[in-house]
Specification:
Length: 84
């Protein structure tokens, strides 16, 4: 017979889902920091239940610009190599 199954969370689970302090996000409407479970933004009053941003708006804007730049550079290289 086997022993009881270990149901404890793994180290990876604790790192991913652990409570490392206040759980905050950012309002998608105004960018203010809000609690994870907020129903509405205290700064602008926008209804945000479940739709908070996980990264600051500045980080998301940077990532969006970076993806656009990478896409444009890839297209330019493709056109140059295959000579349309």
């Amino acid at each position: 017979m086997r022993g009881p199954r270990n149901e404890d969370p793994s180290t990876e689970d604790i790192a991913r889902f652990g409570d490392d302090g206040p759980q905050v996000g950012w309002c998608p409407a105004c960018g203010e920091e809000v609690w994870d479970e907020a129903e509405s933004c205290p700064a602008c009053g926008e209804w945000i239940a479940g739709k908070i941003l996980r990264r600051p708006p500045a980080a998301q804007a940077f990532q969006r610009r970076l993806m656009i730049i990478i896409t444009v550079v890839t297209l330019i290289v493709f056109i140059y190599v295959f000579g349309m």
